[in-house]
Amino acid sequence: MSVSLFPYASNRSKQVQYDVFILDITGAVTQSPLPMDDRSCLALFAAPTQAVIDAHLGTSSEFTAAQFDATSLGADAQGILINMSKQVEDLIFVNVRCFSSTAGVTLVERACKKSTVLTDSSLLTEAAVGAFGNLGIKIDWGNSPDFDALTVGQVVVDIYWRAK
After folding, report:
1. What secondary structure does DSSP assign to 111-134, as a single string?
2. Contacting residues for 70 by C-beta, under 8 A, at least 6 apart
């Protein structure tokens, strides 16, 4: 016989999922996903066009170019779009870490504020679920280290979420 520590409630019926995405820093403002065949995660450093956003997510205006414009992705900032195959209902928590320097000894970490919608033209660290169930993330790394100049390291994105 098993005993549950939590009483049954319909809102507890969906288990929290955990995913990790790793981007390898391969040059100044250049990153590629690890493993190399994982194309679900797109790193943004310059303002993307709406066509680039829509093509990556396979949706129409789920996230807008204004949410990742030149103001949002200024110096030492990054945008990340994650194609979650339209499966996310609720975002619980997002944590992003940047390991840089030789052997990854320098760590800068950002906990992303959960937003209902990413704020247009603003340099905020935040994350949101799009209308179709994909994820958009913006990170202001600050100047420690000079993020835009990094040529080696990794960005690790931890996501806790519930499925539809």
Report:
1. EEEE-SSPPTT----EEEE-TTS-
2. 46, 47
Residue 4 confidence (pLDDT): 46
pLDDT beyond 70 at 133: yes
What does the domain layout of the chain look like in residue ranges?
A: 15-163
Banded model confidence at residue 101, pLDDT cuts 50, 70, 90 = confident
The length of the chain, given as a count of residues:
164
Contacts of 51 (CB under 8 A, 6+ apart): none
User: Do residues 40 and 82 make contact, with C-beta atoms less than 8 angstroms apart?
Assistant: yes
Report CA 48 to chain centroid distance, whole Å.
15
**Lookup result for tokens 């913006």:** 138
Q: Is residue 124 a contact partner of residue 68, using CB atoms and an 8 Å limit?
A: no
